[in-house]
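Ops channel
N.P.: pipeline sanity check, posting one input/output pair.
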């Protein structure tokens, strides 16, 4: 068990670590959650356009389930259930945001900044869920809620601007 910030060696030591650390993005010593969120962009640009909305949703749900397993195991190995280096939750939640927002740079950039803000600030009920729901599910769930706040805010902006 290691509570310190894991490096790439830890990320490559087990498939669950590699996934939970966002393909190694979580090994970044600076803002691993932000770096992990950025990983979602190339994944979406490569994979997203090839899927219908229903197929994209199914893939994201599958990635969420994989994340529950990977974050649960990696948290145990790190000795910290929701270690800051685990950023698969950001990757998956932001993929969900990218699947919904308009495929335009301005909307995607706004979504990125809003998502990061909601993930860091954790407005109610996000912080409450984070405290009550433990393990891999808890790690993944708070970011899904931050994604929901992001999409709600962007929908309001789009409605007002229309």
């Amino acid at each position: 068990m290691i509570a310190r910030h894991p490096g790439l060696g830890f990320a490559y030591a087990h498939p669950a670590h590699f996934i939970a650390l966002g393909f190694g993005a979580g090994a970044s010593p600076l803002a691993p959650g932000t770096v992990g969120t950025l990983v979602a962009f190339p994944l979406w640009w490569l994979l997203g356009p090839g899927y219908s909305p229903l197929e994209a949703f199914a893939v994201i749900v599958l990635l969420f389930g994989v994340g529950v397993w990977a974050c649960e195991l990696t948290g145990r190995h790190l000795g910290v259930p929701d270690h800051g280096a685990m950023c698969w939750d950001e990757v998956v939640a932001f993929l969900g945001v990218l699947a919904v927002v308009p495929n335009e740079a301005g909307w995607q950039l706004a979504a990125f900044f809003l998502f990061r803000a909601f993930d860091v600030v954790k407005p109610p009920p996000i912080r409450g869920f984070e405290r009550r729901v433990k393990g891999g599910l808890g790690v993944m769930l708070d970011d899904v809620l931050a994604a929901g706040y992001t999409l709600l805010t962007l929908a309001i902006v789009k409605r007002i601007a229309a």
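N.P.: looks fine end to end. The chain has one domain: 8-161.
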